[in-house]
Amino acid sequence: MDKTKKTQHGAAKKRKAAHRVFALLISALVVIGIAFAAVLIIKRINTVARKKSLPIRPETEYAYTGDGFVYIEGKTLNFYSVKNEDKNYSMSVEADNVKLVGTDKIKVIYNSSSIQIIGTRFDNMLNGELKKIVCGDKYVAVYLKNENGTHSLRAFNSSGTQCWQRDFSTTCITDFGFESSDSPVLWMSELSTVGNSFSTSISLYDLSRESVIGIISVQQQIVKNVFITKKSIFAFCTDYLIRFDRGANAEAYRVLCYGYDCLSADLSGGRMYLLLDKTPLENSSGSSSETKGDEASCTITKPENVVYACMMRDRISIIKNNQIDFYGINGKLQKSYFFDSPVDSAVKLDNKNILTVSGSETALYNIR
């Protein structure tokens, strides 16, 4: 075999390998009417929903923590366990306009100028305006507008001590989070502009090792969502969904996603599942959805009275005011669960739980 044939043969093998990787991570693009689309993997489901009424009023400030809820009533902070009510507790709160965030390991009460990890003695004054906070099992990350007009991203450990800080004066943080709730790896999406050009860098910093462990760059695309798995970084952008290989810090492939926003995502089991929503402009045009490439596609008529839609593991969950419908990859309705009263609003808490509001009642539905 001459050199040219060897080169062509090698390129073909690489293309086939890339297609196999693509098929493993993203097996299909599902279109629901002209509004919803999902990237998910085929699997049969057998779903049952179980209701539990919550002692939380719809207007109450609360946070779901995995093991229960922390919520505020007047000057009292309450914890309600969904697993063991003997672990419920209450404590007084002196600060005003407080909000809550947490996991089953760390629970945080905060306002625009301070944060406190519940159960620690530190009340951290931030000397700036808190813009966003993300809580993991080991660390808490906050994004601030400093008093001098610059911005900073700071991290606190589980004892409430600040352990890391990075300042930004010429660039803007568009989003940040942890690789997973139990991971010390903090990722940040940083937008920079030069004239008419712009780029977004996505960097990963290991707080436990105090070192940068990865950085990639996205040119001429606004990064709207970032998803991290053990081997990949996915950037959901204005025009493309781009996969980067974490080992090589290089682009692996991209898929056209122009005209869609990401409604919901699930990364359980190391696989990525996305629920996409056509943008208002695309919806108003009445044009049909289309996908190209190796992905399969199917169409489902969008139901009426949709209150909420999300990915829950490998299924599309569509909540209407009187029921939850679960759709499979073949575009067919697989199962429905009917509410005992009409639902006004809903939100996904994790892959097994949805919170609903019906009038003055707040309820937790465990989906199995």
3D architecture notes:
By secondary structure, the protein is mainly beta. It has helices spanning 3-25, 280-285; strands spanning 29-32, 36-39, 49-54, 62-64, 68-73, 76-81, 89-92, 99-102, 107-110, 114-117, 124-125, 128-135, 139-146, 151-157, 162-168, 172-178, 185-194, 197-206, 211-219, 223-228, 232-237, 240-245, 250-256, 260-266, 273-278, 299-300, 306-311, 316-320, 323-327, 333-338, 345-350, 353-358, 361-367. The chain has two helices and 33 strands. The strands form eight sheets. It has a five-stranded mixed β-sheet. Strand 17 (185-194) and strand 18 (197-206) form a beta hairpin. The longest helix has 23 residues, at 3-25.
Task: Offer a quick outline of the entry.
This protein is mainly beta and 368 residues long.
Number of helices: 2
Average pLDDT rating: 82
Q: Globular, elongated, flat, extended or rod-shaped: what is the shape? A: globular
List how many beta strands DSSP finds.
33
| N-to-C CA distance | 57 Å
Low-pLDDT stretches are 3-46, 284-297
**Protein structure class:** mainly beta
Largest sheet: 5 strands, mixed
* Beta-strand content bin: over 45%
Radius of gyration: 22 Å
Features:
368 residues; mainly beta; five-stranded mixed beta sheet; 2 helices; 33 strands; 8% helix; 53% strand; disordered N terminus
Which helices and strands appear, and what pairs or packs with what?
Layout: H1 3-25, E1 29-32, E2 36-39, E3 49-54, E4 62-64, E5 68-73, E6 76-81, E7 89-92, E8 99-102, E9 107-110, E10 114-117, E11 124-125, E12 128-135, E13 139-146, E14 151-157, E15 162-168, E16 172-178, E17 185-194, E18 197-206, E19 211-219, E20 223-228, E21 232-237, E22 240-245, E23 250-256, E24 260-266, E25 273-278, H2 280-285, E26 299-300, E27 306-311, E28 316-320, E29 323-327, E30 333-338, E31 345-350, E32 353-358, E33 361-367
